[in-house]
Specification:
The protein is an alpha/beta fold. Strands 3, 4, 5, 6, 7, 8, 9, 10, 11, 12, 13 and 14 form a twelve-stranded mixed sheet that branches. Strands 19-18-17-20 form a four-stranded mixed sheet, with helices on one face. Strands 1-2 form a two-stranded antiparallel ribbon. A hairpin with a 7-residue loop joins strand 11 and strand 12. The C terminus is likely disordered.
């Protein structure tokens, strides 16, 4: 009972009492929280001993965090011990046990190297209250069922449950057919899952094969592409598909009532390392995490800042989108022999508007196309039917593999878009290989990906992460 009371206390605080109407008030709160947090860390973390100013902390990454796992955490748990414990839970699919009162989990290891996270009971309860305040459709004392499709369950997620709030875990490693009956029986008011799984459920609903009616749908663990978001809105009959940008390093962003993704600057401090005018890489300080301090942790995600303030009135920074991982910036050989970097958004646009391959819909792919307009949907004569399922992968040797079901005309349009992009960005046109699209259940869906040599993968990212 005391734990449920604590969740209720945090819920009420974040839902009704915390009012940050201006950027100035938000900054003052952050300064107070960071000072208090660093005072604790300086006295309890071996590697951060005596460090009481944020600017004194080095910028950390996954290699640093895992390499100094024992010296960094404040609960005396070693890396090997934590990893054995978490791997056993994954293998046995039993995520209830704790290690000396601490929840231990593994990140999904998108980059090839898994991280280990530690969460204390106090942090777990605070997180539950915060998430309920953000996304619960009714009041906390109203009955509510939550369906959660993920790779692994956790005490962290189960904290949300109570006598009135029922939390139901669906293992994505199991075939969807095994979930169909239980999902319909539960008919969750809140449905949570990665976009690839949500798209599958929405498709089954449109065919009449699944009958559920969620009030809130939350996308997690993968980048939610704009075209996928629109498909989900149509499939579930909702005006807003919510997102939670949650990863090993904390709950970093969430969707507001207006459908805009905001950084959760009420619980984290974000330094922005700009890549251009609006794109930036976040450097995260979570001033609520004590068991495993997250201080000046540089993620590997590319976030795009939104112009102007959101109509919801929140002073927290609004995001246009999560574009993808910094590791997935494509690298091309420039005509001047330098390396040319191209952001994932420009790559996806080369495929996104290929339509169904009919010649009259070739858009700007025809003669005299303007390279500045590559991938611009306004140039399509009939932009109603665009590509829905695709992947674009740059292999280590520079070749581009386009996984998409296209006609010959559609393939020619994609090639033309890449030629226009190459002309605009000044790089040599790579070989482009077309393959049929195939969805792989249980794996994180990445629409745009750059393959890297084994052992040279970048830092683990939280892109719409877990």
């Amino acid at each position: 009972m005391p734990e449920q009371i604590e969740i209720l206390r945090h819920y009420l605080y974040y839902k009704y009492f915390l009012r940050l109407k201006s950027r100035k008030r938000l900054k003052r709160r952050q300064e107070r929280k960071i000072k208090k947090h660093l005072d604790f860390v300086a006295g309890h973390s071996q590697i951060y001993q005596g460090m009481r100013k944020l600017e004194d902390y080095p910028v950390a990454d996954k290699e640093f965090m895992m390499g100094h796992f024992h010296e960094l955490n404040t609960v005396g748990i070693g890396r090997a011990e934590a990893e054995r414990f978490a791997v056993k839970a994954e293998q046995e699919r039993d995520f209830a046990p704790k290690l000396r009162g601490i929840t231990v989990g593994l990140s999904s290891g998108t980059s090839g190297r898994r991280g280990i996270f530690l969460v204390s009971d106090k942090e777990r309860v605070r997180w539950a209250g915060y998430i309920l305040a953000k996304f619960l459709p009714g009041r906390i004392w109203d009955p509510c069922s939550i369906g959660f499709f993920m790779r692994a369950d956790s005490n962290l997620y189960q904290s949300v449950g109570s006598k009135r709030i029922r939390f139901h875990f669906f293992d994505i490693y199991e075939d969807f057919e095994s979930h169909r009956g239980r999902l319909e029986e539960i008919n969750p008011q809140v449905l949570v899952g990665q976009p690839s799984v949500l798209l599958e459920i929405a498709g089954e609903m449109e065919k009449g094969q699944v009958r559920i009616c969620p009030e809130v749908v939350i996308s997690v663990a993968e980048v939610l592409e704009k075209e996928d978001e629109e498909r989900l809105k149509k499939g579930f009959g909702l005006k807003i598909i919510h997102q939670v940008y949650q990863c090993t390093e904390g709950c970093l962003a969430a969707t507001c009532r207006c459908g805009t993704l905001h950084l959760n600057e009420d619980i984290v401090h974000i330094e922005r390392e700009y890549l251009d005018g609006r794109r930036f890489v976040p450097v995260v300080t979570d001033f609520e995490r004590r068991a495993q301090p997250i201080i000046r942790y540089r993620l590997n995600d590319i976030l795009v800042e939104r112009k102007g303030r959101c109509s919801c009135g929140s002073p927290c920074i609004a995001l246009e989108r999560i574009e993808g991982r910094e590791d997935d910036i494509f690298l091309f050989t420039g005509k001047d022999k330098t390396v040319k970097k191209v952001f994932p958004d420009f790559i996806r646009r080369c495929v996104l508007f290929a339509e169904d391959g009919e010649e009259e819909k070739a858009g700007n792919a025809g003669k005299g196309g303007n390279p500045k307009e590559a991938g611009n949907p306004k140039n399509l004569k009939n932009p109603g039917k665009t590509v829905s399922d695709y992947r674009v992968v740059q292999e280590e040797d520079g070749r581009i593999f386009v996984y998409c079901d296209l006609s010959e005309a559609g393939k020619q349009q994609v090639l033309k878009e890449f030629e226009l992009l190459a002309q605009d960005r000044g790089f040599m046109m790579p070989d482009v290989v077309f393959m049929r699209y195939q969805y792989e259940p249980g794996k994180k869906m990445k629409r745009v990906e750059r393959k890297q040599q084994t052992g040279k993968a970048g830092k683990e990212t939280g892109a719409a992460g877990e």
